[in-house]
Amino acid sequence: MSDSEALVKVDNLVVRFPINDNRHRAYIRPVDQVSFEIKAGEVLALVGESGSGKSTIGKALLRILEPSEGTIVVGDKDITHIRRRELVEYRKLAQMIFQDPFGSLNPVKTIEQHLAFPIRKHRLVSSDSTSKLINELLERVGLTPVEETRLKFPHELSGGQRQRVAIARALAVNPKFLVADEPISMLDVSIRAGILRLMTQLREDFNLAFLYITHDLASARYFGNRIMVLYGGRIMETATSSDLIRKPLHPYTRLLLAATPGSSVKGALPETSNKPPNLMEGRTGCPFADRCPHVASVCREQVPELLEFSPGHMVACHFTNQLA
Questions:
Q1: Which of 177, 183, 250, 296 has its CA 20 to 30 A from that of 76?
Q2: Which domains does the chain have, with CATH numbers?
Q3: Which residues are registered as beta bridge partners of 25?
Q4: In terms of DSSP bridges, do strands 43-47 and 226-231 run parallel, antiparallel, or are they unpaired?
Q5: pTM of the model
Q6: For strand 209-214 and strand 226-231, is the pairing parallel, antiparallel, or unpaired?
Q7: Phi-psi map region of 288: left, alpha, beta (phi>0 left; psi -120 to 50 alpha)
């Protein structure tokens, strides 16, 4: 695979969940016709507020959730519906860093046991070399002295240290692709930058591809090569990080930017409602229509296509040219 080829290819991904609606079976679509690519060594930052479908996409890519429609190709393999042994093998290629570094670690297992499990499960090295690899992983993520750290339990570490353990565990299988699901949102502000610097260094050292899930445009700009804005399960806008922050085109992206601390956008937030998006299957129109200050009748009737406004800058809005 050349550097120019995508490592991760997602085409028209749909995830639906059944609900009981007046005693009749109905479905919601928290992810609706989402397509994107991520190259080796690239970070795609997936940005949106809570409930936009970000974590659902991440779990579908790791096959924690089963996609309802569409395809996911990682490397040269279609992993959309793989099972059993194929799924176990896929775990060596792709790993996840979860949001809660305490909840994702077993409180009765030592750090050494957490790191040894994936190494032994996937038979990555001989038994004699497992201890050496554990030390190398702890050193790589900055948890020293390693001989002390490996014998500790999760509750004996700080939140930032626990997240470093989670990152080391993900690295243990030598993956090519990581899904980082809001990995700094539960950490103190003072240590968030350290985790982002660590992930940046790991990306450079191992040519890792990242799907970085966040609601924070500031960290998305810092860590991401590209930013993809999601709302109501659909892509609103995608561009390089610098282009999107410098010239946001979609009204929802502008809303997110206005709500970001330190943003140059001042004044009242540019929205007309705080109504949540309609996720029901069969919905019509733009999912942001109820909150958009530029809404027109066409917005409630037709789903806007994701079209290229300028090279690499895609927007799903009926009035992109007027708002640019």
A1: 183
A2: 6-93+175-271 (3.40.50.300)
A3: 20
A4: parallel
A5: 0.94
A6: unpaired
A7: alpha
